[in-house]
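Quick one: sequence plus S-adenosylmethionine SMILES, need structure tokens.
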Amino acid sequence: MSQNEKETRISNIVSQLSLCAEHNVLIYDKCAREYDDLAEVFGFDVPRRIADCCMKNLSLPKGTTVKSCTALDVAAGTGITAEALKKAGFTGAIDGFDGSSEMVKVAATKQIHRTIVQHLALPNHPLPFAGKTYDVVVIGSAMNPGHVPHECLHDFLDLLKPGGILLFNVSHLTTTDPDGQASGSVRRILQDMSKEGKGECILDEVNSLNLGLCCFIRLVVCWWSCYFIRI
Ligand SMILES: C[S@@+](CC[C@H](N)C(=O)[O-])C[C@H]1O[C@@H](n2cnc3c(N)ncnc32)[C@H](O)[C@@H]1O
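Reply:
Sure thing.
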């Protein structure tokens, strides 16, 4: 497929996404086998940013090494964020889940995750992971409208060990978010977390990513915020 054909294909996929996660994972099912190839087109560097931020901020209990740490890759897709974590030096075990069974199948062939399962994250839909288990939870490019609901952040925090970190990015500008500010509800949730003493947002970094693909920028995102929370 030529560069132009790939851009058209991405535009076509993006145009099928809606505000409904159940619907969207079926779209991801259909493009799972071509996802990595297409992702390369827009030089998407969120996974690398998340991985670098993780390695800079990982706190290791005395006498332990990164190898003994565990991470959970939320909405893991084909495993691009987990791959970036490994590349950045995360040598611990990484578990993952994704709502699309086909994305999970592709990720499983890469054998980056210790375990990877199909699970759709929704409010009041218990996660198949034990609480206080992980040193790191990463959510790469999946906290968008019609993807992982922001309310689920509470559930992900519960999975962290004390001192663990949660890293995610959200889009600032979307055409699908009713108020055009996807980060608004995240900010409210983070403020509540802080008030309740559940976690503290110690890095809130706004990035402009040069995605280099107008259709993608127009339809989905032009600014990202990266959040880093320590509990
Ligand atoms: C843009 S992809 C990002 C994948 C991967 N994290 C990465 O960095 O490449 C979004 C992923 O979120 C998954 N997804 C969307 N909504 C979800 C939900 N509510 N629960 C679990 N996975 C979800 C999709 O199936 C898709 O694989």
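The longest strand covers residues 160-171. The chain has nine helices and seven strands.
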